[in-house]
Design brief:
There is one protein chain. It is built from eight helices and six strands. By secondary structure, the protein is α/β, with parallel strands linked by helices. The strands form two sheets. A four-stranded parallel β-sheet has the order 4-3-5-6. A two-stranded antiparallel sheet has the order 1-2. It is globular, with a radius of gyration of 21 Å. The chain starts with a helix and ends in a 6-residue tail after the last helix. The model has no long low-confidence stretch (mean pLDDT 91).
């Protein structure tokens, strides 16, 4: 027996979510239609509302309901530092540390030529313009330590250094509370290479 076409469309639409395959999408669709129609209605309205109201901040490229987001509009931030992250979730994690009070730029991705993601797709033109705004004195590259994240940090770092900007990269090493015997060899090697003097 074939599904109604509207149900097939819903299942296909749910597959756009990361990590959701055909079976998961089918289970979600049946759940929403059979057990949680109010939840489905709320989800549909929230998606529609978000699509209409959320845009990119003109300064940091993060999601915002206003032209300039609350963080960029704050007079309490240090405009001399600009931290470059891959995704809004990375920005949120850095904010939770309460150790950084500068500005941000969100790439909304990372360089990945095999996936068709180049400099244009991660808004490097906007980043370069922002970094050369006359206020920025240091750009901190906080991309992930993946192959693509490293390539992105290297590429962006070279572009920024060529324009006379001070560029730094977040450190990597042992996690807080981690025990050496349980850490992978690559992380341990980086911790040794990036060690620093005690003050």
């Amino acid at each position: 027996m074939n599904n109604p076409s509207a149900l097939d469309q819903l299942i296909e639409a749910l597959r756009c979510l990361p990590g959701v395959g055909p079976k998961s999408a089918q289970r979600m669709a049946y759940h929403l239609l059979q057990r949680d129609r109010a939840g489905a209605q709320h989800l549909a309205q929230s998606l529609q509302n978000s699509l209409q109201r959320i845009r990119h901040c003109q300064k940091c490229n993060n999601f915002s309901e206003t032209e300039i987001c609350e963080l960029c509009a704050s007079g309490k931030r240090d405009a001399h530092q600009l931290c470059v992250v891959e995704m809004p979730t990375d920005l949120m994690m850095l904010e939770q540390t309460q150790t950084y009070s500068g500005m941000y730029f969100v790439l909304m991705g990372r360089l990945s030529p095999l996936d068709g993601v180049g400099p244009k797709e991660i808004h490097l033109d906007r980043l370069l313009k922002r970094a050369q705004d006359g206020e920025t004195q240091e750009v901190i590259l906080a991309t992930n330590y993946t192959v693509e994240g490293e390539a992105t940090a290297h590429y962006v770092g070279e572009l920024l250094k060529a324009r006379g900007l001070k560029v730094s990269r977040i450190a990597r090493g042992l996690p807080m509370g981690g025990e050496i015997e349980h850490v992978d060899v690559g992380t341990l090697a980086q911790a040794m290479l990036e060690r620093r003097s005690l003050r």
